[in-house]
Amino acid sequence: MALQAASFSEDGKYFAQITGDGKLHIWNTLSNSLEQEFTPDFHLTTPCTCLHFWNPRQSSNKGSPSPKKKKRREEVSTSPNIVLGTTSGILLIYSLTKGAIEYTIDSKTNTQVNCVSITSNSLSYSGADQNILEWNLKNKELQSKWKGGNETITSILALPDNKTLLTASKIIKQWQISSREVLRTFTGHSSEIVFMLYVDLPQAGSYVLSGSKGDRLLSCWNLSSDNKQKNAVCNYLMQDSVQYISVNVSDQGLTKVAATNKSGTVHVFQHKLNGKCDKPLKPKSAIQVVSDTGQTNEPVKPLRVFGARFIDSDTVCLGHGSDLILTFEQVEITSKRVEVLIRQDPHALKKSKDVQITKIKKPLIGDGVHYVSTESSKRKPGQQQEIPMEQRLENLTLSKSEGKVPRVDNVAQLLLQGMHSKDRNILRTALFRSDENVIRNSIKRLPVTVFEGLISELSILIHGKTIMSRFGALWLKHLVQVHAGVLISNPSLPELFSSALGSIDNKINSQAALNRLKGKLELLVPQVTSAASAENDEEDEALLVFNDKGSSDSESEEEVALEIDSDSEPENWEEDDVEDGNMEVDRNHMGSSPDSGDSVVMVDDGHESD
Question: Which of 303, 307, 188 is nearest to 243 (CA)?
């Protein structure tokens, strides 16, 4: 599907759509029928990418023609033309009156035309790769071309003043057409912008609505010259990416927005643009279209809404169905939160209940045939067999062979919910993560509009304790690495990071002081330990040793007696072996053994013998 492949005409009578096979379908919303179908000769090689309705009558106001000529001119050109962009850089002008291509304009660039926008003076602007192409539809030529930046231009919008132009990729730039200079730059979206719509409020100034293909936010930007703000004044929260937008402004300045998302649901918002809105706005009501065949065994199928356009402040025209069959109807907006419209599926075949046509022939079966059934329970004819509860539970549980629990690789949606609701528990659950892959994937999916709030939350974490400071530093590191270019373009960058940088400097200085103290303590502790151990070694030696001599003499006498009894005394020791009477043993020398060389003195009648 192309970027701008569907659009209502200015009066709402026609709805043009480029299908997936390259064909142009033009529907009449009043008669609810397919008005025209056009297939280019080269649609297989260079299909159409975008379209825009153009009414040549608005730009041909030379003089004041007579009433007859004016009436005749209106009768001739009652239908607008459609400007088609192609992948080969060719612009096709299709005439609804002729039902064919009226003429073509070649840009000679061979680059794809991504978007088209036309001013009231028949000048068309297109985005082709990184270039801005200016076409003169009256002269049937490419008037000029200039480069619009380093990114591919995915959406373009010519403002009614015919002096300024808006181009968008991920960011939105406002150009001065005469000087081809950039007047202002808006932050834009996190992915490529695919749709922009101009809104003019009599008292509040001029605005533009934009939607991208990657996020669920529809943003509103203030184009007033006295407003220098680069961020969106308000955001509209949707269930899916935007595909088509319609706006209705009341006399009191109340703005209603009917936004059709990619899944085919219409969200209706109501807001008065009189200042900046911090939180994203939720839809006042939602409109869904489903098909119901009336049979209980068939599920309800949703019908996709391709576009919604305001008829008045309380009525919208919906185009729902498929690429081949569309149905248009006017629906009144109610106060219900969700309005579900039950309609018939356009692809459903209307079968007659009485006559059934079939080409299948049933075989002839005799009366002697017996059927064997393995089912224990009987079912009524036409009743669907139910799945057992055990099998249902097995389908719900994880298989044991896998052994792995599915994990989410990002918490971007949880983080956005916590930041929008200011819930500390949700923010703590989303930010307290140490897996850097999850952190990096989450940051890649965050829109640019939440960066300032995220940096404030991370600064609070860095001010906290050690574990909180660690989580905040991890998120801040990956945020700077992934979105460095976007952060640099923010003029309030020093103010955003001042708090975090001050806390980081304090922690680094404190850590350095702690490291110096730790080093000195490591040098001091071994010295004190060695001195204490030396003193303990000196104190181990006894200062005074007391020897009890009495106890030692008695012990030595007992030892001498034991030695005499066991070793020195011969086995046949008798008193008769000693001549001349008695023998005395000097007890002073009994403690020594004969082997030591000490002498033993024996006394006999006053004689000494050695």
Answer: 307
β-bridge pairing 81-86 and 234-237: unpaired
pTM summary value: 0.56
The rounded distance, in Å, linking the Cα atoms of 430 and 539 is 63
CA 580 from chain centre, in angstroms, equals 127
For residue 246, report the phi and psi dihedrals to the nearest 5 degrees. Answer: -140, 140
Q: Is the pLDDT of residue 540 over 80?
A: no
Residue 126 neighbours by CB under 8 Å, 6+ apart: 85, 91, 113, 114, 115, 116, 117, 132, 133, 135, 156
Q: Which residue has the higher pLDDT, 552 or 416?
A: 416
Closest CA to 584 of 604, 564, 606, 609: 604
For 245, residues 6+ apart whose C-beta sits below 8 A from its C-beta are 195, 197, 209, 211, 218, 257, 258, 259, 260
- Nearest Cα neighbor of 476 from 492, 465, 460 is 460
Of 209, 167, 205, nearest to 185 by C-alpha is: 167
For residue 481 the two structure tokens come to 């690495």
Q: By CB neighbour count within 10 A (0-12 exposed, 13-18 middle, 19+ buried), where does 473 fall?
A: middle
**Taking the C-alpha atoms of 548, 549, 554 and 555 in order, what is their torsion angle to the nearest 10 degrees?**
60
Nearby residues of 389 by Cβ (< 8 Å), 6 or more positions away: none
CA dist 92 and 76 (Å) reads 21
13-27: per-residue pLDDT in tens?
Answer: 999 998 877 788 999
Comparing 522 with 307, the larger pLDDT belongs to 307
458 and 472 Cβ atoms separated by less than 8 Å? yes
What value, to the nearest 5°, has the Cα angle with vertex 212 and ends 207 and 214? 150
Closest residue by Cα to residue 268 from 253, 287, 249, 251: 287
Handedness of CA 229, 234, 239, 244 (dihedral sign): negative
Within 8 A by CB and 6+ apart from 10, the residues are: 53, 55, 80
Using one digit for the tens of pLDDT, what is the confidence trace for 108-127? 888 899 999 998 888 999 99
User: Under DSSP, is residue 514 helix (H, G, I), strand (E, B) or coil?
Assistant: helix
Q: What is the pLDDT of residues 53-68, one digit of tens each?
A: 998 865 544 444 555 5
Per-residue tokens: 400: 């044991």
Q: For 495, phi and psi rounded to 5 degrees?
A: -70, -35
User: What 3 state SS string does 38-61 have?
Assistant: ECCCCCCCCCEEEEEEECHHHCCC
Six-digit token pair at 324? Answer: 């081949």
The 8-class DSSP code of residue 398 comes to: P
Total length of the chain = 610
Take residue 245 and report the two structure tokens written for it. 């937008």
Residues 6+ apart with CB under 8 A from 282: 237
> Which residues, including other chains, have CB under 8 Å from residue 95's CB and lie 6 or more apart?
79, 81, 101, 102
**For residue 28, which phi and psi values (nearest 5 degrees)?**
-95, 115
Give the CB-side neighbour count of residue 483, counting CA atoms within 13 A.
28
How many CB atoms lie under 10 A from the CB of residue 531? 10
Q: How far apart are CA 174 and CA 180, in angstroms?
A: 10
Q: pLDDT tens, 384-415?
A: 556 667 666 666 655 544 445 556 688 888 88
